[in-house]
Design brief:
Blueprint: H1 3-23, H2 36-41, H3 50-58, H4 62-68, H5 72-91, H6 98-124, H7 129-132
Helix pairs in contact: 1-3, 1-5, 3-4, 3-5, 5-6
Length: 134
């Protein structure tokens, strides 16, 4: 795949993902959950509710998004920043600086660690789940 084609794919992928999340019929019915870990074990995973949280954010439902997953806003911000940065450098025909890639990677690790800590808290203290897991 050429650099131009890759750049066009990235440019289109961000808005397309947002549109798909906005129109996706994600509801609260437990039978419609897409999390394979939760279907198999019955336990929520560290990112259970994240897709529904992102979908709620695309519809402007901030409270509902936080109820689905408290870190949905942070993930949306990281995804939007990465998409905007990649598009910015592609449109200027420049390589993405290694320092920026490193910072974005560290931000993703930080969010993943926070998801794990919240999940671990819910496993150790099941009453916490009532605050946000659906």
């Amino acid at each position: 795949m050429t650099k131009r084609t890759m750049g066009l794919c990235v440019l289109v992928a961000g808005p397309l993902a947002a549109v798909l999340l906005r129109v996706a019929p994600l509801d609260d019915d437990p039978r419609h959950r897409i999390c394979a870990f939760r279907r198999i074990t019955g336990l929520p995973c560290a990112t259970c509710g994240m897709t529904r949280s992102l979908a709620a954010l695309t519809r402007g439902e901030w409270t509902r998004a936080r109820a689905y997953h408290p870190l949905g806003g942070a993930v949306a911000l990281a995804l939007a920043a990465a998409w905007a940065g990649m598009c910015w450098f592609w449109l200027r025909n420049m390589a993405v600086p290694a320092q920026l890639v490193r910072w974005w990677f560290l931000a993703c690790l930080g969010i993943a660690a926070a998801c794990f800590v919240v999940w671990l808290g819910c496993v150790i203290f099941p009453t916490i789940q009532a605050l946000w897991y659906h």
